[in-house]
Prior knowledge:
125 residues, five-stranded parallel sheet, alpha/beta, globular
Amino acid sequence: MMKIRLLLVDDETDFLTAYSRRFERRNAEITIASSGQEAIDKIRDAEFDVVILDVMMPEMNGIETLRRIKAIAPDLPVIILTGHADSKTLIQGMDFGAFDFMLKPVGTDELYFKVLDAVRSRQRS
């Protein structure tokens, strides 16, 4: 089984730490970013199979980060995570090319299966 190169983007350190450990146990290579700009910089420097991106972040929110990611890597699947079910934001994210969105709190298995879906979808295209 191939190792999934996953970029995890969230300003909550506890979330990054917990999900990094959980996904590393599932044979994923994790890179973390605590801001939208840091995520963009990392995408310019390395290749990833999928991105998990929080919406609510200071300075640059997840939707603006998504827009900039898609300008750099249009085929890179991005899964949006949000703690607020704001339909306008979610529609905007899908319009900018998000693979899918999930609401926090999300179970590790549920999120992992979504990551696998995103990676397989990219491989088929």
